[in-house]
Amino acid sequence: MKTAIVTDSTAYIPKEVRDDLHIHMIPLNVIINGESFQEEVDITAEEYYAKMRTLDKLPTSSQPAIGKFVELFEHLAKDYDAIISIHLSKNISGTYQGAMTAGDMVDGVDVYAFNSGWSCMAQGFHAIDAAKMALDGKTPEEILARLEKLKASTKAYFMVDDLSHLQRGGRLSSSQAMIGSLLKIKPLLTFKDDVIVPFEKIRTQKKALNRIYELLGEDVAKGLPLRAAIIHANREQQAQDIKTELEARYPNVDFSISYFGPVIATHLGEGAIGIAWMLK
User: Fold this and answer.
1) Distances (CA, A) of 196 to 35, 71, 150
2) Which of 77, 84, 204, 229 has minimal CB crowding within 10 Å?
3) pLDDT tens digits for 13-24?
4) Which residues of the chain carry a pLDDT beneath 50?
5) Rounded to 5 degrees, what are φ and ψ at 213?
6) CA distance 171 to 169
């Protein structure tokens, strides 16, 4: 059985990796001044951050149209027996539901939509592993079982530099955002039950990063084979510095660098930093 792997653009998997592993990507949209852009297709992360600095009104985002899924699935049905479509957390976007609906509309191929429960490279790791297994000829059932195991082992924590984005998106009340900004609070955030939730409130970025390091260290101490991604919102040098520090501290962990692209950055803002890790 030949299985295709699909993910959405919020996995932020580099194009060369997607091409090498035959990962098919469906883009979400970011709306800037009323104009819609497909992220990773019409606009890069660098272009998005440059535009953001000139805007009075924050951008918004939207999920792919179901017709986009149907078009892709019908194309893949010509060459594949099954499709596993891996998406960002179902409670922060309707993308997963769109994949499910489109799968029911396409004949000649079995479509399995998978809710990663995460986004960014936490989601990307799922798609990468699935693609490697598909290229090795593993069955959809074997791949889905691996994805469930990865999902259960995944942890991710991140912090934002500007609380206004979270406040606008309903993640913080106006008073919490104002007080947090005045006190320079850097809330640690994570995913719980498929939504972004506060984990801890910490006064400075340095202390917040050290807390993430501690949380990672707790899992490293268990002797688990881990990989981790430092994820940044237009803070590449800071991400590189963090990677260097963590590689020295935890040499048995495989570290990489990724980024918050336009859709996720719309909600987190420039300057956000996070670390995600899971089993190898």
Assistant:
1) 27, 31, 19
2) 204
3) 999 999 999 999
4) 171, 173, 175-179, 182
5) -60, -40
6) 6
| pLDDT for 273 | 96
In terms of pTM, does the model score above 0.70? yes
Q: Chain-centre distance of CA 1, in angstroms?
A: 29
**How many degrees, rounded to 5, is the angle at CA 175 between CA 173 and CA 181?**
105
Q: Which residues contact 190 (CB under 8 A, 6 or more apart)?
A: 155, 156, 157, 158, 196, 197, 199
Token duo for residue 177: 């955002």
Residue 186: count of CB within 10 angstroms of its CB: 23
- In the structure encoding, which two tokens stand for residue 239, read together? 């991400």
- The residue type at 48: Y
Alpha helices in the chain (DSSP H): 15-21, 45-52, 66-77, 95-105, 120-135, 140-153, 163-168, 174-182, 205-220, 236-249, 262-268
- DSSP letters, 195-238, are EEEEEEEESSHHHHHHHHHHHHHHHHTTT--EEEEEEESS-HHH
